[in-house]
Please model this.
Amino acid sequence: MPRTAIALLTAVAFVLAGMIGCSREKDQGALPELEEIVLAVTPWPASAALYVALEKGYFREEGLSVTTQSHVSGHLGLEAVLAGRADLATSGETPIARRALDGKPLMIVATVAEIDRAIMVIARKDRGISSADHLRGKKIGLVAGTTADFFLHIYLTTSYINPREVRIVNLATGRIVEALLNGEVDAVSTWSPYTGILRDELVGNACIVYNENLYTMTWNITATRDFVKNNPERLRKFLRALVRANGFVAEQPEQARAIALRYLGTDSALFAKDWQDYHFAVQLDQSLILTLEDQARWMLGKQTGDTRGVPNFLDFIHVDALQAVQPQAVTIAGH
Model:
């Protein structure tokens, strides 16, 4: 064979070998494309499992790229979802019930935590408050339309105090701590981390008025109807990651607390003590329906002349994703 032909064949062989090598490298180096989710989340202990899933890479292992938006309150996160600025949001029941009454197209995908003492009424002792009875005639600050608003209602009711006997002061979420510390109000109805901050700052001047077993709050993942309809597999991936994160919280509570603290930006010693009030489980329980109905009735009762009825909250619960991931976690009648 002529030398020129041999040289040509050798060159072709090198080119083919290079092409095959590049192709293999490309195939081996290619990563599956991650599906994006924007999560509106409130940084407080009930969101711990979400932060664990982010920190430990559970979302990425499910093929998700989760970007978080931080909101000081669940009702603001819910508004971000309804406005199309986020895909999923964390929220307590009160904003959900309110938006359901308004006919907004939202769905609860799962409850991720239950909290025994989620909301507290913290008062100043130097204002003469050492028990529930002493709240009469006092100014109580809260964020209207939140779970703290509903909690104060049931707390006053069970303490035989007419709401007209107290002065409710509506505050922005970011002013709760300041308003009590500077004496603008005599007490506040609020949630963690503000409860911990106030107890730290007021020290011996803080009076916590609370009725044990009065109310268990749920922390829920919400979405719009369109997102739920158009992204069934994405929701299943998200919930699988959360189930795994809750397992980590149960098995490694100290590490889970450390992760949550980094996102919460607090190192209060009270945080560890309060951790026992948070119960992490991905579920959809019948009690959620009952709580939503109670809150809807409370809202309707506050509005004179409102002829709307309590919604059928089954229409606002999406069970399919959780049933596919963990069927035993769905205990809502009819499902």
Remarks:
- The two ends are 79 Å apart (CA to CA).
- The domain at 119-209 is CATH 3.40.190.10 (D-Maltodextrin-Binding Protein; domain 2).
